Amino acid sequence: MLPILLAVCMGALTLLLFVVWRVRTDGTWALWWHDNYLERLRDFTSGKSRPMRILQYVQNTAVQGDANSVISAVDSYCANVEWAMNVGDKKGEILDAVVLDVRPRWVLELGTYCGYSTMRIARLLPPGARLITLEMNHHYAQVAKQILGHAGLDSQVDLLVGASFCSHSSAEEEV
Ligand SMILES: C[S@@+](CC[C@H](N)C(=O)[O-])C[C@H]1O[C@@H](n2cnc3c(N)ncnc32)[C@H](O)[C@@H]1O
């Protein structure tokens, strides 16, 4: 009996080590691990979704009305606590450079999620310019609205809830 138990334990430990190694060395495995296990575990233990946890962190740590502070808070949360699908600080700098270079009067963003890239764009828009951002997930849109409000950017941004593709209804609602 003992040799069988030992063999099972060794097998389980080897499998665990293999998974840990793959998660640490392969992006696909890391995404799978984060989305299927860690996120569900955190949802269960916190009683909140990931976007809600990001919002809560922003509300607790970022300066109200200061977009850069809110962006830094989201970056800090996503670097130190849990991954999220924001464009992030590195690609965000490229986005900033494009907005500063083009100085658009109108911007259309497809896919708001929690409003991270929306904030990056909106804070750099020239006076009078507007950003329309479209998000098909109602929950994400509600969170983004609060994050944009905390950043003081809601007056420059029209956040629409709906999908970029049109099936039968073309009417989108504004949050
Ligand atoms: C990668 S996330 C966007 C991240 C965000 N731009 C940022 O950097 O903070 C993609 C988002 O697009 C939304 N989405 C995907 N397909 C969409 C569609 N056809 N119409 C509107 N939103 C869509 C998803 O719900 C998700 O929130």
Describe this structure in words.
The chain has about 180 residues and is of the alpha/beta class. The chain has two domains: about 1-45; about 50-175, Rossmann fold. Helix content is about 60%, strand content about 10%. It is built from seven helices and four strands. It has helices at about 1-25, 25-45, 50-60, 65-80, 90-100, 115-120, 140-150; strands at about 105-110, 130-135, 155-160, 175. Strands 1-2-3-4 form a four-stranded mixed β-sheet, covered by helices on one side. Helix 7 links the parallel strand 2 (about 130-135) and strand 3 (about 155-160). Helix 1 packs across helix 2. The protein starts with a helix and ends with a strand. The mean pLDDT is about 95. S-adenosylmethionine binds near residues 85 and 137.
